[in-house]
Amino acid sequence: MKVAVIAHKKKTFGGGLDELRVRITDRQVDELLWYEVPKSRKAPKQAKKALKEGAELIFVWGGDGTVQRCVDALAGSKAVVAIVPAGTANLLAQNLEIPRDIEEAVRIGFEGKRRKLDLGRINGEHFAVMAGVGFDAEMIADADRGLKERLGKLAYIWTGLRHAGGSTTPTQVKIDGTDWFDGEASCVLLGNVGTITGGIEAFDDAKPDDGWLEVGVATARSKLEWGRLLGQMATGRSDESPFVRITRARKVTVKLATPRTYELDGGARATAAKLKADIRSQAITLCTPY
Protein backbone atom coordinates (compact mmCIF):
# COMPACT_ATOMS: atom_id res chain seq x y z
CA MET A 1 0.00 0.00 0.00
CA LYS A 2 1.20 3.51 -0.84
CA VAL A 3 0.59 5.85 2.09
CA ALA A 4 1.02 9.62 2.34
CA VAL A 5 1.36 11.94 5.32
CA ILE A 6 0.51 15.63 5.13
CA ALA A 7 1.67 17.24 8.36
CA HIS A 8 1.52 20.72 9.82
CA LYS A 9 5.02 20.66 11.29
CA LYS A 10 4.26 23.25 13.97
CA LYS A 11 1.56 21.05 15.54
CA THR A 12 2.58 18.34 17.96
CA PHE A 13 1.41 16.02 20.72
CA GLY A 14 2.51 12.67 22.13
CA GLY A 15 5.72 11.51 20.47
CA GLY A 16 5.16 13.91 17.58
CA LEU A 17 5.87 13.22 13.93
CA ASP A 18 8.65 10.80 14.83
CA GLU A 19 6.14 8.54 16.56
CA LEU A 20 3.71 8.92 13.67
CA ARG A 21 6.35 7.68 11.23
CA VAL A 22 7.13 4.69 13.46
CA ARG A 23 3.46 3.75 13.91
CA ILE A 24 2.79 3.91 10.16
CA THR A 25 5.88 1.96 9.17
CA ASP A 26 4.91 -0.78 11.65
CA ARG A 27 2.20 -1.58 9.09
CA GLN A 28 2.43 -3.14 5.65
CA VAL A 29 3.47 -0.02 3.75
CA ASP A 30 5.11 -0.36 0.34
CA GLU A 31 5.90 3.34 0.00
CA LEU A 32 5.57 6.29 2.37
CA LEU A 33 5.18 9.78 0.92
CA TRP A 34 5.95 12.46 3.50
CA TYR A 35 5.00 16.12 3.17
CA GLU A 36 5.45 18.70 5.92
CA VAL A 37 3.98 22.21 5.66
CA PRO A 38 4.64 25.32 7.80
CA LYS A 39 1.07 26.64 7.46
CA SER A 40 -2.30 25.03 6.79
CA ARG A 41 -2.78 27.00 3.58
CA LYS A 42 0.23 25.16 2.12
CA ALA A 43 -1.48 21.79 2.61
CA PRO A 44 -3.77 21.66 -0.47
CA LYS A 45 -0.85 21.58 -2.92
CA GLN A 46 0.67 18.62 -1.07
CA ALA A 47 -2.70 16.84 -0.83
CA LYS A 48 -3.12 17.06 -4.60
CA LYS A 49 0.46 15.93 -5.09
CA ALA A 50 -0.11 12.87 -2.87
CA LEU A 51 -3.22 12.00 -4.87
CA LYS A 52 -1.36 12.39 -8.16
CA GLU A 53 1.45 10.16 -6.84
CA GLY A 54 -1.10 7.41 -6.26
CA ALA A 55 -1.46 7.45 -2.47
CA GLU A 56 -4.12 4.98 -1.39
CA LEU A 57 -4.35 6.34 2.16
CA ILE A 58 -3.61 9.94 3.19
CA PHE A 59 -2.95 10.79 6.84
CA VAL A 60 -3.55 14.43 7.78
CA TRP A 61 -1.68 15.60 10.89
CA GLY A 62 -2.83 18.97 12.18
CA GLY A 63 -5.75 20.99 13.45
CA ASP A 64 -9.09 21.82 11.89
CA GLY A 65 -7.50 24.30 9.48
CA THR A 66 -5.15 21.71 7.99
CA VAL A 67 -7.92 19.10 7.79
CA GLN A 68 -10.28 21.58 6.12
CA ARG A 69 -7.69 22.63 3.55
CA CYS A 70 -6.99 18.99 2.69
CA VAL A 71 -10.60 17.87 2.37
CA ASP A 72 -11.28 20.95 0.24
CA ALA A 73 -8.45 19.92 -2.11
CA LEU A 74 -9.50 16.24 -2.15
CA ALA A 75 -13.29 16.69 -2.39
CA GLY A 76 -14.85 14.53 -5.06
CA SER A 77 -11.72 12.38 -5.48
CA LYS A 78 -11.16 8.73 -4.59
CA ALA A 79 -8.81 9.71 -1.75
CA VAL A 80 -9.14 7.94 1.60
CA VAL A 81 -8.31 10.35 4.43
CA ALA A 82 -7.26 9.50 8.00
CA ILE A 83 -7.11 12.28 10.62
CA VAL A 84 -4.45 12.51 13.32
CA PRO A 85 -5.86 15.33 15.51
CA ALA A 86 -2.92 17.55 16.47
CA GLY A 87 -4.69 20.89 16.77
CA THR A 88 -6.51 22.90 19.42
CA ALA A 89 -10.20 22.10 18.93
CA ASN A 90 -10.04 19.12 16.53
CA LEU A 91 -13.74 19.55 15.74
CA LEU A 92 -14.08 16.99 12.94
CA ALA A 93 -12.09 14.37 14.84
CA GLN A 94 -14.22 15.02 17.93
CA ASN A 95 -17.47 14.61 16.01
CA LEU A 96 -16.20 11.36 14.45
CA GLU A 97 -14.81 10.10 17.80
CA ILE A 98 -11.24 9.91 16.57
CA PRO A 99 -9.09 10.18 19.71
CA ARG A 100 -6.06 12.38 20.28
CA ASP A 101 -3.84 9.31 20.40
CA ILE A 102 -1.29 8.64 17.68
CA GLU A 103 -1.34 4.84 17.89
CA GLU A 104 -5.13 4.66 17.85
CA ALA A 105 -5.49 7.27 15.07
CA VAL A 106 -3.09 5.25 12.92
CA ARG A 107 -4.98 2.02 13.71
CA ILE A 108 -8.23 3.70 12.61
CA GLY A 109 -6.50 4.78 9.40
CA PHE A 110 -5.49 1.24 8.50
CA GLU A 111 -8.30 -0.78 10.05
CA GLY A 112 -11.23 1.61 10.55
CA LYS A 113 -14.39 1.98 8.55
CA ARG A 114 -14.20 3.81 5.21
CA ARG A 115 -17.09 6.22 5.53
CA LYS A 116 -18.33 8.50 2.75
CA LEU A 117 -19.27 11.85 4.26
CA ASP A 118 -20.88 15.00 2.99
CA LEU A 119 -19.08 18.32 2.68
CA GLY A 120 -20.58 21.76 2.82
CA ARG A 121 -19.37 24.37 0.37
CA ILE A 122 -19.46 28.12 0.94
CA ASN A 123 -18.37 30.69 -1.63
CA GLY A 124 -16.62 27.87 -3.48
CA GLU A 125 -14.67 26.39 -0.55
CA HIS A 126 -15.50 23.09 1.18
CA PHE A 127 -15.97 22.55 4.90
CA ALA A 128 -16.55 19.40 6.93
CA VAL A 129 -17.79 20.79 10.25
CA MET A 130 -19.39 24.22 9.97
CA ALA A 131 -19.35 27.66 8.42
CA GLY A 132 -20.63 30.87 9.91
CA VAL A 133 -20.81 34.62 9.64
CA GLY A 134 -21.07 37.19 12.42
CA PHE A 135 -20.49 36.45 16.11
CA ASP A 136 -18.81 33.05 15.78
CA ALA A 137 -16.52 34.12 12.92
CA GLU A 138 -15.40 37.26 14.76
CA MET A 139 -14.74 35.18 17.89
CA ILE A 140 -12.64 32.73 15.86
CA ALA A 141 -10.74 35.52 14.10
CA ASP A 142 -9.75 36.96 17.49
CA ALA A 143 -8.72 33.53 18.79
CA ASP A 144 -6.48 33.07 15.75
CA ARG A 145 -4.36 36.09 16.68
CA GLY A 146 -1.87 34.09 18.74
CA LEU A 147 -4.33 33.31 21.54
CA LYS A 148 -4.77 29.64 20.61
CA GLU A 149 -1.04 28.98 21.07
CA ARG A 150 -1.11 30.61 24.52
CA LEU A 151 -4.51 29.54 25.86
CA GLY A 152 -5.60 26.52 23.81
CA LYS A 153 -9.38 25.94 23.95
CA LEU A 154 -9.72 28.73 26.53
CA ALA A 155 -9.01 31.16 23.69
CA TYR A 156 -12.51 30.53 22.29
CA ILE A 157 -14.14 31.14 25.69
CA TRP A 158 -12.17 34.35 26.18
CA THR A 159 -13.00 35.80 22.77
CA GLY A 160 -16.59 34.55 23.01
CA LEU A 161 -17.11 36.56 26.18
CA ARG A 162 -15.63 39.61 24.46
CA HIS A 163 -17.96 39.39 21.47
CA ALA A 164 -21.17 38.37 23.26
CA GLY A 165 -23.53 41.32 23.21
CA GLY A 166 -21.95 42.72 20.06
CA SER A 167 -23.73 44.10 17.03
CA THR A 168 -26.51 42.56 14.99
CA THR A 169 -26.87 43.03 11.24
CA PRO A 170 -29.95 43.16 8.98
CA THR A 171 -29.80 39.70 7.39
CA GLN A 172 -31.74 37.83 4.74
CA VAL A 173 -31.52 34.04 4.40
CA LYS A 174 -32.94 31.96 1.57
CA ILE A 175 -33.10 28.16 1.82
CA ASP A 176 -33.57 26.14 -1.36
CA GLY A 177 -34.85 29.26 -3.12
CA THR A 178 -37.43 30.16 -0.43
CA ASP A 179 -37.27 33.25 1.79
CA TRP A 180 -36.77 31.96 5.34
CA PHE A 181 -35.35 34.75 7.53
CA ASP A 182 -35.40 38.53 7.22
CA GLY A 183 -34.36 40.53 10.27
CA GLU A 184 -31.60 41.44 12.67
CA ALA A 185 -29.14 38.59 13.30
CA SER A 186 -25.96 38.30 15.32
CA CYS A 187 -24.84 35.06 13.68
CA VAL A 188 -25.71 32.66 10.85
CA LEU A 189 -24.36 29.12 11.18
CA LEU A 190 -24.27 26.27 8.68
CA GLY A 191 -23.47 22.84 10.08
CA ASN A 192 -22.51 19.47 8.67
CA VAL A 193 -22.11 17.94 12.15
CA GLY A 194 -23.56 18.69 15.58
CA THR A 195 -20.69 19.85 17.79
CA ILE A 196 -19.02 23.14 16.86
CA THR A 197 -16.38 25.50 18.28
CA GLY A 198 -16.08 25.37 22.06
CA GLY A 199 -17.69 21.92 22.22
CA ILE A 200 -21.17 23.44 21.84
CA GLU A 201 -23.88 21.09 20.57
CA ALA A 202 -25.43 23.54 18.11
CA PHE A 203 -27.28 21.11 15.83
CA ASP A 204 -28.78 18.25 17.82
CA ASP A 205 -30.03 16.27 14.80
CA ALA A 206 -27.08 16.77 12.44
CA LYS A 207 -25.57 13.81 10.59
CA PRO A 208 -22.53 14.16 8.33
CA ASP A 209 -23.90 11.75 5.73
CA ASP A 210 -27.58 12.69 5.40
CA GLY A 211 -27.24 15.01 2.40
CA TRP A 212 -28.43 18.11 4.29
CA LEU A 213 -26.92 21.29 5.73
CA GLU A 214 -28.15 22.41 9.14
CA VAL A 215 -29.00 26.12 9.14
CA GLY A 216 -29.19 28.29 12.24
CA VAL A 217 -29.75 31.99 12.84
CA ALA A 218 -29.04 33.53 16.25
CA THR A 219 -30.82 36.75 17.19
CA ALA A 220 -29.36 37.20 20.69
CA ARG A 221 -28.12 40.75 21.30
CA SER A 222 -27.20 41.34 24.93
CA LYS A 223 -24.76 39.34 27.05
CA LEU A 224 -27.78 38.12 29.04
CA GLU A 225 -29.50 36.79 25.91
CA TRP A 226 -26.28 35.12 24.75
CA GLY A 227 -25.90 33.58 28.19
CA ARG A 228 -29.41 32.14 27.98
CA LEU A 229 -28.80 30.84 24.45
CA LEU A 230 -25.47 29.19 25.25
CA GLY A 231 -26.94 27.77 28.46
CA GLN A 232 -29.77 26.19 26.48
CA MET A 233 -27.27 24.72 24.00
CA ALA A 234 -25.27 23.25 26.88
CA THR A 235 -28.19 21.73 28.77
CA GLY A 236 -30.95 21.06 26.24
CA ARG A 237 -31.91 21.33 22.59
CA SER A 238 -30.68 24.42 20.73
CA ASP A 239 -33.92 24.79 18.78
CA GLU A 240 -35.86 25.31 22.01
CA SER A 241 -34.17 28.67 22.62
CA PRO A 242 -36.19 31.81 21.75
CA PHE A 243 -32.99 33.37 20.37
CA VAL A 244 -32.35 30.90 17.56
CA ARG A 245 -34.08 29.45 14.51
CA ILE A 246 -32.90 26.14 13.06
CA THR A 247 -33.83 24.25 9.92
CA ARG A 248 -32.03 22.39 7.15
CA ALA A 249 -31.52 22.83 3.44
CA ARG A 250 -29.42 21.82 0.45
CA LYS A 251 -28.77 25.36 -0.80
CA VAL A 252 -28.47 28.52 1.30
CA THR A 253 -28.00 32.16 0.38
CA VAL A 254 -27.16 34.75 3.03
CA LYS A 255 -27.27 38.50 2.36
CA LEU A 256 -25.98 41.00 4.93
CA ALA A 257 -26.63 44.75 5.02
CA THR A 258 -22.94 45.27 5.87
CA PRO A 259 -20.00 42.92 5.24
CA ARG A 260 -18.94 40.74 8.17
CA THR A 261 -16.18 38.20 8.78
CA TYR A 262 -17.06 34.61 7.91
CA GLU A 263 -15.38 31.34 8.87
CA LEU A 264 -15.31 27.68 7.97
CA ASP A 265 -14.18 24.83 10.20
CA GLY A 266 -12.75 27.30 12.69
CA GLY A 267 -10.67 29.26 10.19
CA ALA A 268 -11.46 32.93 9.66
CA ARG A 269 -11.83 34.30 6.14
CA ALA A 270 -12.32 37.80 4.73
CA THR A 271 -15.46 39.90 5.16
CA ALA A 272 -18.39 39.30 2.83
CA ALA A 273 -21.87 40.72 2.32
CA LYS A 274 -23.18 37.67 0.44
CA LEU A 275 -22.58 33.98 1.04
CA LYS A 276 -23.74 31.10 -1.15
CA ALA A 277 -23.59 27.60 0.29
CA ASP A 278 -24.64 24.10 -0.66
CA ILE A 279 -24.08 20.48 0.36
CA ARG A 280 -22.06 17.95 -1.63
CA SER A 281 -23.29 14.50 -0.73
CA GLN A 282 -20.69 11.77 -0.08
CA ALA A 283 -17.90 14.06 -1.29
CA ILE A 284 -15.03 12.63 0.81
CA THR A 285 -14.04 9.25 2.27
CA LEU A 286 -12.79 9.38 5.86
CA CYS A 287 -11.49 6.65 8.17
CA THR A 288 -13.65 6.41 11.30
CA PRO A 289 -13.74 4.07 14.32
CA TYR A 290 -17.13 2.69 13.20
Automatic annotation (TrEMBL):
It holds the Pfam family DAGK_cat. Gene3D superfamilies: 2.60.200.40, Probable inorganic polyphosphate/atp-NAD kinase, domain 1. It comes from the Bacteria. The keyword DNA damage does not apply. InterPro entries: ATP-NAD_kinase_N, Diacylglycerol_kinase_cat_dom, Lipid_Phosphate_FormReg, NAD/diacylglycerol_kinase_sf, YegS/DAGK_C. One of its GO terms (biological process) is phospholipid biosynthetic process. GO terms for molecular function: ATP binding; kinase activity. This is YegS/Rv2252/BmrU family lipid kinase. It comes from Nonomuraea soli.
